[in-house]
Amino acid sequence: MFSKLRNFSEDVAKSLNDLTEQQNQAQLPKPDPLAQLQRNAKVLQAETPDSNQLTQPKDEVESDGLSRGTAPVNGDQSAPSSKQGTPPVGAPATVNLEELPPAIRSKMKKFAKYEEKYPVLLEAYKVEKKKSELIKIFENVLREHTPVSSISDAKTLVEYLNGLNEKTKLQSNEIRKLTKENSVLTFKIAKYEENGEDSLSRKMEDLKKENDELKSQVQEHRDEITLIKKEKEELETRVEDLGKVNGAVSNGTKDHKGEEEEDTEKEVDELKTQLSQKEKELEEIGTKLQAANKSLKEKSDEIEDLRDSMKDIGNDLVTAKDEIKELKKREKSDESATPDEQRTQLEVKLASLSDDVKSLKDKLAQKTKEAKDLQGKITSLEDQSHTEQLANKQSEDNLRKDVKTLKKQLQEQTEKLDAKEKELDAQKGERVKLEERLQELSKFKSNDTSYKLEISSLQSNLSHKEETIKELRSKIDSLNEDNTTLQAKIGKLEKSNNELQANYMESLKNKNELLSKQESFIESEKSLNTQLSKLQREKQEIRNELEKTRSSLDALMSEKSSANNDVQSYKRQYDELAMKSKEYNLRIESLEDELSESRNLLQEKTREGGNLRRLLIETDEMMKQKESDHKLELKGLENEKTELERRGIRMVKKKQKEIDDMNAVLNEHKARIADLEERLKGMVSVSHTEPTADTDYSNSELQSQIDTLREALSASSSKVKEYEKLNVTLKKLNEENISKFERLSKNYKLLTQQYRLMKDNESRRGSAESVSSSMDVRKSESLDEKRDKDKQSDTNIAYLKNVLLGYFEHKEQREQLLPVLKTLFHFSEDDENKFLVALK
User: Fold this and answer.
1) Where is this region: Disordered (predicted)?
2) Average pLDDT of every residue of the chain
3) What is the enclosing helix (H) or strand (E) of 657?
4) Which run of H or of E encompasses 483?
5) What are the tens digits of pLDDT across the range 158-181?
6) Domain map of the chain by residue range?
7) For the chain, how big is the Rg over CA atoms in Å?
8) How many angstroms separate the CA atoms of 1 and 495, rounded?
């Protein structure tokens, strides 16, 4: 008995030494926590005895001392924590318990029970102590990598994981959108290359042709002006000759003079009318030339605008090339950091993007060449237009000079005609004197006929000039028509240029969006890497847990049929829940569609004005009814949600109870197996005294029982795994349904708020319309739009404030929030470095 006490004291001393050694090791520099958790995974899987099954030993007074005297021996042999310093098994034989008094005997029996339980409890204490240390390490890891501070904050961890899942979903959706936008951009670029190049070349050729035609027309006008000048000079010479002839005729007879003077006066009047007509025609030609010069100036301005736009396009193409190079560099740097699972998908996407980039580079090179060619053509056209403008200016100056000289000549001729009229009056007085010279006038008859022939020739020339003037007018009309066609073409070119600029701006916006999305993808890759590491750890833990369950029970075989029935009922309930969730989703989608339709109707009705007030009142009533219906449906959905949660909780509780019962049965069977093993050992010790046949028969029976128990344990462990998997799937489905319902309720609240705002705006607009005119309505609409913009700006400011405060308060989450700040404030690499330096 005293040897047992000594062994007990030695075991206590050794356990205390072990604890001190563990504390000293804890003070030493700690290794990597992740590696430590992986090494001690089996410690977490180790099971300790249930506190409900343990009972405190009491004093016992019984007569059968031999049967109970063997218990401490078996307890010493089965203790896993007994060391090499323990005495042999037959040591207690030196003391006879029957010789001791009954009080001491009961105390010794109680002490034997304590001695049986002590090694088990000590081992359990060590395991639990190690588990608590591993839990602390796990909490430290959670604090470093997640916003969770302890295991009790399970809700925050679930929310964090759900947020990561939502981020991955959003990123996948953004990747799909980017691929679609990329395909649309490539299609637009191909169309622009097919249509834009042909249209530009055609327009340039048309402009060249029109420029050549204008040049030829200007030269024809110049030739016609020179011909008119020559004809005018000839007319002036002939008028002078007529004046001389009249002077000579005045010296002739008075009878013939009167007739000739009348003829000459008529001819002079006709010549005056012809000169005035030609002056008018010259003025019209001058105005048309001025209009043509204005159109040429406008075309030159348009050509300069096109040239500036081509320069801007070239600069934008250069910047696009540089940005494409930077994107390639980033993609190369990101390829090394991507995980193995996503690397194949990203490589395929990068290959497609690289092909797109190569095609875009080729297209950019072609477009730069075409832009250079166009610039050369534009410069040549500008030179030609400049020379034409100079020639037109010179021709205008010459025409103005000619018109001035013609006016001066007309004034001189009118003055001469007045003088001639006075001379004719004087000649009438001298008619009596000239009668004596009738004989001399007969001689001049032949000259008079020649003069008449000359006048007829002049009239024919005048008719010919009138025909030429008509031809010039027809040409001017054709020039005006050509000018209108040119203006229409210029308008088309301007429209196409505006469309190209708009497409270019859209491409720039898409490019900026792609850059921001690429940064968000980089962040998502980091988060996915952390998730992969966590999932790998969880996988190892699951494998360790799978190795844990090795024994089975007979009672679970009888419960198999009931468990299968329960599983089928759970499956049916799950199918019903899934169908109900689908129906609720369809209902919610229909409600969202109805709300969007009602919103569009309200927006259209606000534009119609006072004539549609009755319709607005009817729609308000309809929307109120729909709101009441939606509220009733939401209440029904909430009731169904609560019922589903109650069912899920009941299911989980049932499963937990079943699992606890199974664990209890497992522990009982483990205890039985331990007892059987102890009996086997006792039988081996007693085998020297009893015959061998009985021992072999008992051993075979015990081994067969142990095998059957093990087979039953393996089957029951598989069932337990299946039940746990079903429980996990049901929990996930319940959580997904709850999250979906919460999202739908949030969307419904937002839609109701928007609808109330729309109703308030409509009531304000209706009151303003009854008081003021349509201009007041527009002002109120602009004020409402400003208010909405102010609200949006306030919400944006609040979001930015929360992000900045979260970044400065939570130092552990700065790596996760830094890319968000990049995308919000459009930080470049230099801005990011400056920001980090300022924080340090």
Assistant:
1) 16-97, 239-318, 361-401, 761-791
2) 69
3) helix 613-686
4) helix 445-548
5) 888 898 898 888 888 888 888 888
6) 2-145, 161-428+439-534, 549-771, 773-840
7) 56
8) 111
